[in-house]
Design a protein that fits this description.
68% of the residues lie in helices and 11% in strands. Strand 2 (71-79) and strand 3 form a beta hairpin. It has helices at residues 10-31, 37-40, 55-66, 104-117, 134-162, 168-192, 199-229, 235-270, 274-316; strands at residues 42-49, 71-79, 87-97, 120-121, 128-132. The chain folds into 2 domains: 10-32 and 136-316, Up-down Bundle (Multidrug efflux transporter AcrB transmembrane fold), CATH 1.20.1640.10; 42-132, Alpha-Beta Plaits (2-Layer Sandwich). The protein has 317 residues and is of the alpha+beta class.
Length: 317
């Protein structure tokens, strides 16, 4: 059976990724960027509920009362404040993002209309009000971006040093471009589905960066070893053999990771645990695109880089 040539057919993978990013760019123009109150600023109100609450109806009621955009969701948590055993508590989470947090009167108005339409516990010790100013939100966003940038720079330096024998900087640069591809896909999915970006998204990016670069480093390591074994072969053949040698490991790692992530997603969705839903969903996207970019983007792009450099050197002679 003839093996798939990743290097020769790289144009298809590159074309697919380019088309995907064009689609994401169009969705960005249409939908814009939605920021969670942790980054934009605003107010989050958590109210304990008794029985079922329709978050969509809660959004409409609060928006009509205060005239601001509202995002509502229902989640479950555990309360340890009872004298008996811990009990499951249903919480209605209301996020009102804006340039300024809600005033005390607006917060009271929100609680009033919610209590008039739903069965809630306004004096519950589990209730919580969190207000974040735009300045604090921007500072949190800047620190999150800084964390991603620092991790990328450190990865660039490490891969450059680790694979200096095969042109360390070029290998590192292509690995970083593959990571940018992963982050871009995750960002694009959030934009397309109109999911607000939050601190969980930043945490997931850092997790996926570590996962993706590990997969890429394994392929680079095979390329370095095969460069010594296959001295008479061209660079494309060496890279293609190296990818195939790492393919089973990459696929097995992805599948086993996806099993855990899917189980986490189902568990969090079943129990309405919002933070875990966000984390597991974005991690699901990141694991898939991380495996894809390691196999179809990083090493084939590095071959393209090296071939262009060689052609440029020959033209100068």
């Amino acid at each position: 059976m003839k093996r798939y040539d990743f290097v020769k057919n790289r144009k298809y993978a590159f074309a697919f990724s380019i088309a995907l990013f064009i689609f994401f760019a169009i969705m960005l123009i249409i939908n814009g960027i939605a920021l969670d109150i942790n980054f934009r600023g605003g107010t989050r109100i958590m109210i304990e509920t008794i029985g079922e609450v329709d978050p969509n109806r809660a959004e409409d009621i609060v928006e009509s009362a205060i005239g601001k955009d509202v995002a509502a969701s229902v989640m479950k948590t555990f309360s340890g404040n009872d004298d008996n055993e811990n009990r499951t508590v249903n919480m209605l989470r209301i996020d009102i993002a804006g340039n300024e947090p809600l005033t005390a009167d607006e917060e009271d108005k929100v609680k009033e209309v919610i209590s008039q339409n739903f069965d809630v516990v306004l004096n519950s010790p589990n209730n919580e009000n969190v207000s974040i100013t735009p300045t604090v939100g921007r500072e949190t966003l800047q620190k999150g971006i800084l964390a991603v940038v620092v991790s990328v720079v450190l990865i660039l330096l490490y891969v450059t040093w680790r694979f200096s024998t095969i042109g360390g900087f070029s290998a590192a640069a292509c690995g970083i471009l593959a990571l940018a591809h992963d982050v871009g896909v995750m960002f694009g999915v959030y934009i397309t589905l109109k999911i607000p970006l939050n601190d969980i998204f930043i945490a997931t990016i850092l997790t996926v960066i570590g996962y993706s670069i590990n997969d890429t480093v394994i392929i680079y390591d095979r390329i370095r070893e095969n460069t010594g074994f296959m001295r008479k072969s061209d660079l494309g053949s060496i890279v293609n053999v190296s990818i195939h040698q790492s393919l089973n490991r990459s696929i097995n790692t992805m599948v086993t990771t996806l099993i855990s992530v899917v189980v986490l997603l189902v568990f969090s969705a079943t129990n309405n645990i919002g933070s875990l839903i966000d984390f597991s969903f974005s991690l699901l996207i990141g694991v898939v695109t991380g495996a894809y970019s390691s196999i179809f983007i990083a090493a084939p792009l590095w071959v393209f880089w090296k071939e262009r450099r060689q052609k440029a050197a020959l033209q100068k002679q």
